[in-house]
Protein 1
Amino acid sequence: MIERILLIAGEFPPFAGGIANAAFNLSDALAKRVRSLTVIAPRYKDGCSESEIDKFQPYRIYRLPLMRLRFFRMLPMTPAILDIAARERPNFVIAMRATREGIPALAIKKLLGVPFVLFAHGLEFARFSTNSVGWRFCSYVYRQSEKVMAISETTKKLLIERGILAEKISVVRLGVGNQIFEPVEPMSKWNGQMLTGRRVILSVSRLVERKGIDKVIEAMPLVLERCPDAVYIVVGDGSYGNRLKRLAQEKGVSDRVLFTGRVPDIRTFYHACDVFVLPTRENRKGDIEGFGLVYLEAAACGKPVIASLVGGVSDAVVPNETALIVDPYDPKSIADAIVKILTDKEIARKLGRAGRERVLQEFTYDKVAEKVLALMAECVNPKGLQTRC
């Protein structure tokens, strides 16, 4: 039986991001199921907000500097992490990635004899060529782990193509946090523009080229021809933001495309929208969508989704059941799907209802925690000793 777990997270709240949210929500679900959970997380500049988060958690959190560094730059923190592991005496270690948390997890196994499992997302290893030092390091960490938990079938396929044994890999799809289900008031106005009574299109994303927001902006003139009250809200920031703003001006829709940057509570935007759209595409080798959690968050709020079947998005949506599928390079395809949902309330309700039901059945962190614990249990014999897995 797995009773004591150490989870190593290179990102953790108050930092906002997919890995941080996954580590936080998984920790919350695991804490309900094991005798002792310890989390090692980064120390950020604003220690006050960290302490406000940490004091309410039902598990111990150690905050260390430099936790966001990659590869061998994590070495200065490894002795401190080893010391914590020796004191807490976990049965198992969970690492959120190979590239950051992999070195301390490996050191704990080699020096303290504690086995580890780790997540594989996609971009963190797929960005490296197969003959690079980066991939050789990731490959070694994956092979030394008891299980590699790929977050999608696409990620599993990529690992197998790179030589990781299929039996070493299990698919553990991430979930949505309980917070997304809490009732909130929908956003009624943003930056002086009223949203009430408007048909709201929403994207939530880092602003990078492959997310496809540029093609949604190019689709907006076509959407406005048939839905003149539509407004497109883009939540997030990133290096492509200025280019997207210029594109909105070039297309004459800058007054209908609202860029919010990062927001403190995304739920109000999900609840305000009529359709969620993110037609991601693959721009370069390895730069793909590992899973697509935002599609599930929108679905959890009962919203219809428009997506493209790129990378792990195919794990997050069911075509024509929870989402309409579009060509991510074709603005007309995107516009037609948006208009279809905005003008057909029955289709919108059907997609939104099916998406929410699927999230509740398959994508909560209680389900994720149960799967992780089951995988770790497979790797120990009845006396609690490590076996081949």
Protein 2
Amino acid sequence: MISTVLVVSVIIVYGLMGQFRDIYRNELLIKLSMTAQIVSNNMEQDYLDDVEQPQHYMNHSYQKLWSAIDTVLDKDYEFSGDMYCNILRYSQDSGGYALLYLDNSIGTYYPLTEDETQAVKEVYETGVTLQSDIQSETGSYIYVMTPIIGEGGEVAGVVSVGTLSSVINGKISAMTGQIIIAMIMIILAIMFLFGEILSFFDLRDRYRAGRRTSQAPVPMHIVRLAVFVTFMAFNMATSFLPVYIIRFVREDMGIPTALANSLPMTLNLVFIGLTSLICPKLINRLGFARLAAVSSFIALCGDLLMACSVDYSMILAGLVLNGIGVG
């Protein structure tokens, strides 16, 4: 059974990762397309035409182009922190070249590779946005090229916005780790529940056999089931107790806030452990039914006291009583 669960889990994780990769890639392309379109709308053909030679870099037009990009792709924001942006142009004489880089690392005309030149030429000819991948000396990229439409309706340049493909791989790796941890927890929970079910039927058979040879056998299968249900409900409620307790913690109590917030829960667990040590003797003396009724009443009193608490001391008393009853 465990091997079957493991195989199914691996298949599910593999399928989810493939779907997540496609979904994330599409969302990333939408993000790049929107950014490229915004930058394209802020470009003016006069500024592009005014940067024709290397000495024109850092002139007024170049600064305007740079400012238009830098305003959209602010590296201080997570949205654009992993993106780059280039302004590209194409002509029959010069071919494809980069006019401006976001990181300002070029500063001169920079010829494009053959694949990049072909992509820019395609955008010039079609006037539509191009989405693609590219492998270069600096890494693998996913990018979007959007045309800059001039005053006469012709393509005056191309905005290329992209990011490293490793960004997708990093997201996939992080998501894979989270899913694997979740799957391990699910498998452990299934194994635990399966073990509890087997133990219940085993103890039930022993109880039935004991009734034939003993006058008053202890129904341990009922005890185990009651303990399991009690602690499951207790742990679910305990998850929210720190949020409830902190409402009654004051700065003038003379102890650190973290200690005051954790002390009631600590005392609760201490009394659960202490009373569980004497539980077997009490069962033999009082019987299972009477002890279950008494412990339930004590735990109920503790829960009611916590529900009606108006100060920190009532919270402490309530959790102590709850610990005695649960233990």
Protein 3
Amino acid sequence: MYAKISPFKSFRKSFLSSQAIRTLALSIAITSSCVVARQIATRPTLTPDHGQSVPSDPGKATVGHLEVTPASVATSVPAANYILGSDDQVMLSVTDLPEAQATMRVDQQGDLNVPLAGRVHAAGLTVNQLEAEIEKKLTEFVWKPHAMITILDLRSQPVSFLGEIGSPGIHQLAGHKTLVEMISSAGGLRQDAGSTIRITREIKWGRIPLPNAKDDATGQYSVASVPTKNVGETSDPATNIILMPDDVIYVSKADLVYVIGSVKRPGGFVLGQDETISATKAMALAFGLDKGAAGGHARITRTEPGSSTHTEIPIDIKKLLAGKIQDVQLKSNDILFVPSSTAKTILTRTAETGIQVGTSLAIYHF
């Protein structure tokens, strides 16, 4: 009743069925590989010849031959009126001419070595002027080239800041910057900033446009000063001058006056941006007379600038504080000494001794 099937025939059918499946799977795999290969072949590729490279850090973008973070690219230096000079670094890109893309630094002769265009003089030009010069030289490679320059690093217009400034050292001008703007970029004035700011400029940039400007002994520099108050409060725009490359800005250290002897808080008091302080204010900063003070026998010891001699000025502090006599202005390094009623012989001390005592006291700001 049942047909007998030969074992050989059964094995042969099974083998053929398996072989058919394998053939079908192989065909599908080959077809898929061809499709993938075709897609890869149609993708655009960037090669080092086009000024591109693969960044070593996935978090960085590649601009020309320079790896930078995306934030650095977004915050490129503004180039409105900036005059290029030696050591400035720029990035060049040219529409439809990727071979010209490069990151370059202006050499000591003021030139850039531009791909395809050769040497182009950049020092003394604005960005727009440099772009126009490069475009002229690239016309033989592309019709109406459009060059774009981005400033990456400024090093050609240094201004030196010394003295009581937040961040002393060399800071770069970026275009036309005023004294106030550059002081702000250098960290502002310190608490111990004095009453004057001295500016020194090379004559090749012209004399400083301030009434008190004078040439130094060599005739190579123009020197002028600006009251610190004018800069801090910008109350006088005439003193907020435009700075030039290689200017040196020195912020003086604040001078002191000393109140010593029979007062409640003896010490040195910083004048800050003021050149003088009244004796009344000095006594207020010293918290007034101490118990047993001989205020009627006080003295001001003064040393004139450039002199080693001292002058003693008598002052009646009791009458001063009572408003019975005119106030007296204390100058830099003046020492106001109030003796004790039980030790009036201390007035016989030399001025030098008074100075030594004064300079060893605590220093107070107000």
